[in-house]
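fwd from M.: "can u put these together and see what the complex looks like"

so here's what she sent:
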Amino acid sequence: MTGCISKAELGKMFAQAAELIRDRSELLSHLDSQCGDGDHGTTMTRAMEFLENAIGPANRQTVSEMFREAGWGVMGVDGGASGALLGSFIAGMGDPPSGDEMDCKGLSACFGAGLRLVQNRTKARPGDKTMMDALVPAVEAFSASAENGKDLSEAMRGAAEAAESGAESTRNMVARYGRARYLGDKTLGCADAGATSIALLFRGFSLALVTKKES
Amino acid sequence: MTGCISKAELGKMFAQAAELIRDRSELLSHLDSQCGDGDHGTTMTRAMEFLENAIGPANRQTVSEMFREAGWGVMGVDGGASGALLGSFIAGMGDPPSGDEMDCKGLSACFGAGLRLVQNRTKARPGDKTMMDALVPAVEAFSASAENGKDLSEAMRGAAEAAESGAESTRNMVARYGRARYLGDKTLGCADAGATSIALLFRGFSLALVTKKES
Amino acid sequence: MRMKKFINDPKRLVPELLEGFALAFPARIRLLGTNTVVRATPKAAGKVRLVTLGGSGHEPGLSGFVGPGMLDYSVAGEIFAAPGAPRCIEALREACRDGGSALLIVLNHAGDVLAANITMEAAAREGLNVKMVLTGEDISGPVGDRRGLVGCVAVYKVAGAAAEQGASLDSCFHVAERMNRNMRTLAVAVRTATHPATGHPIFELGDDEMEIGMGQHGEAGTGRMKLKTADETAEIMLEKLLADLGVQQGDELLVLLNGAGATTLMELYLIFRRVARLLESKKIKLARSAIGEFITTQEQAGFQMTIARMDPELIRLWDEPADAPFFFQA
Amino acid sequence: MRMKKFINDPKRLVPELLEGFALAFPARIRLLGTNTVVRATPKAAGKVRLVTLGGSGHEPGLSGFVGPGMLDYSVAGEIFAAPGAPRCIEALREACRDGGSALLIVLNHAGDVLAANITMEAAAREGLNVKMVLTGEDISGPVGDRRGLVGCVAVYKVAGAAAEQGASLDSCFHVAERMNRNMRTLAVAVRTATHPATGHPIFELGDDEMEIGMGQHGEAGTGRMKLKTADETAEIMLEKLLADLGVQQGDELLVLLNGAGATTLMELYLIFRRVARLLESKKIKLARSAIGEFITTQEQAGFQMTIARMDPELIRLWDEPADAPFFFQA
Ligand SMILES: Nc1ncnc2c1ncn2[C@@H]1O[C@H](COP(=O)(O)OP(=O)(O)O)[C@@H](O)[C@H]1O
Ligand SMILES: Nc1ncnc2c1ncn2[C@@H]1O[C@H](COP(=O)(O)OP(=O)(O)O)[C@@H](O)[C@H]1O
Ligand SMILES: [Mg+2]
Ligand SMILES: [Mg+2]
Ligand SMILES: [Mg+2]
Ligand SMILES: [Mg+2]
């Protein structure tokens, strides 16, 4: 396969992302401590460990049910702001009806629906120094690749790169949402914790697919 | 005069002692922090500042009334253990009836009576690592000098030296009274705070009398 | 500095601390499902239930205020992290189980608000009779989007008293809103705490600095300055609060002082002394007060000062009895 | 580390903090002369008055327990230093003013005992009807000369309840003595506090150490060891206390956990959880408990654990109402 993705692949994507985020947990908490309350690493680790278990071939539901429930479930790990938004993203991914397998366009539809649900729940937009600065470009890049007929792993690499440069760009932004919003100019200079973890999420997805392709 | 002491001299003695103790306040608190609660310097400073004001020519009472009231008053500055004992010593000094002036024997009788009242109120004896290790030898040395007809300033120098070597000897003792009593062998090695301040008290008395004689 | 806390597995901190809490107050509270604190004896049917949600690590609050005259349900999240919507909606379902209604009181913090909004969406879908109040009184933030700090306790108190007396959901909501509109809080911090899960300090502050405008979780504020005396600090903070609330001569105020964790009651007394004296000199009436540790931030040093303009009804509701583990009055 | 406390002139710390305390609880307490805290509404004539004395810097205790059902007079000393006999005798004169009688409750600390003995001498000379109880339950000290720690609060509670019910001086004395004989306390410290007057740390402790057997004022203890988990610490301390008191299966215990200042309620909940579970497994009954900050040592980190063997009368007295600023029950 170069264009198709099953629950097994989805499982590997989330497992790989969970591993990356767990490894960078200290860094994420450190970033959060600059402008927030210093817990983003532990929160994201808890959330990703939940998703790693919830998403994969062991799950007997349809893919859309799986996403919806996993999204709701990840909200239940008490992940503060990022848990609620990540949960919404995953839950929203369950909106488009989907069978047992998806192609690149199918996954792109899921990402798009996830993003829409997130956008319903926060007014933050790119430029506000939040996870949206990574999530929006990642989803857009993936969607463009899917439109252009790129294969999954290439599309995901593009999404990861877009997320990373989005996260990087938050350094020069002033926070307008989340706990950091009260700090004004003091938030200049350090990257947003949530955007950084979204970049890790897509990098994890991409690594899982690359590994698969090369093996 | 070489043998007579008036309220004016008593005032100078307490003023000089207060000055020494105020200057060494940090050291006294530090000693107390090794085996106690670290407040002996501030406590003694408060007590001595009270005595400095209470004892002197401005006081219109008889010397014994002056000592009795000053002793009771110094208890009122809330000086913890040392305040109660120092207060008892001063109050006890008022027991022997005394006129406006005293000679060396008269002062010796006062010291002796002060010590007796202290001994009524604590079971601590020399060797127990308390202020008694300085107070008892100081009073005894002063009394011996008075018996032997030494002059006041010589007698007081002897008392100060006895108090100092008494205080010094507490280094090798294990505390048996006061807050330090629970620490056992851990109290070896540092001098007792209360004994150190009694040594300063008598050194102050002695300095006041020396200065007077030489001037 | 190594973290010096008596904890076991940091991952099990919240269930363990709630278990200890429940064991310590068996006559007053119990646990419902995972990490939700409820009254040992539920409120009579037909009365409005008060529900709150928020992160843990701030003991005694928020769960310390569950009890007659105050809260019915406290949905406790992880350390400093809001609980998720799934558990919040469960609490609302319980609160409305017999066709009853619930007032959801939420402190304005990104995570809590997100969870609350998702919960309210679900509640609407399920047809539950719920209203939500968002508290936000931290004057270090912009009007319209201020953080919710210890003032929530006053909201729990007055809305709780109204609910206990059988007021309708609408009246409880309006009482809560009125309390919220009339209160202002400012926080100051002088020393950081360590996060019990990460073991790291939650912010950094110079050896001789203090910071005014600190958030509830050690989020940095905006008013860093040299350490001041008790009197100076009280004065700076009170003046800002009075100005922001537009307090006039003759107004009646409630004053709350909330220790952050390591600041002693001794210090809070000194601060309170100055506040009381200043109000007196300004002919502003100190109607009621509360002083202690209500919502802490681990062993952070500092405190929050809240003032609230009280009207006769708010005072009457404030004076009603309450019997929560950490808020008791006859 | 520089001291970071909100204070004004260190020399005026105690009068200022008491002034703030009185302003914060005007309906409950007021000040008498210099630094003595009394009830706002005195106890009815003819009933035994309870008087205590002790240093300040431990807020809320001891003065936080003045009120109906507990103390009548608290003579507050300087920071960590006993008040002098002159003020103590004034309080006793007041307490006995209408031919009444007083129970003087003193914690066993050198300075307090000296002041109390001098006071009792004076009281005898003046013919006042006073009895004195010396509390001492710190098992880190030798039997017969143990320090008085937070257990005094239990003594205030039961003797206060007896006095409120009109018990004679003798009965109040015997109740207090019985409570004292049946209680045991052990303290642990993990981080020192700074003395608010000197600005210095009151003891030193390694970065990974804790010390069991700490005194009330940060006096070093004797059981220094590596930092332990909440469960391990609870277990070590409880076992020592149970053994010392000779607790048997079926005994009924009161358990108090008293935070030293900076140790969070979160941690105390974890400790309490383990204590409750251990007692359960040993078939010892947890009859009553109290958890919080009663007698602190500035911002020291650590806590005191007290257990007390209760008989039916002690339980009944413990359950009586109390209305002190920091001990309230209906
Ligand atoms: N309103 C919001 N919209 C979008 N992203 C947000 C919002 N609030 C917070 N975030 C993101 O969440 C991150 C913080 O997450 P986390 O620390 O886990 O939650 P909390 O702030 O509740 O402690 C921020 O770095 C930001 O990227
Ligand atoms: N029972 C006692 N008998 C004699 N001296 C004592 C006794 N208790 C304490 N002291 C003396 O008092 C000193 C401590 O004084 P201080 O620190 O001022 O009082 P506290 O112990 O109340 O803080 C000790 O160093 C010791 O010399
Ligand atoms: Mg965070
Ligand atoms: Mg001392
Ligand atoms: Mg958080
Ligand atoms: Mg002392």
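replying to her w this: Chain B has a mean pLDDT of 92.
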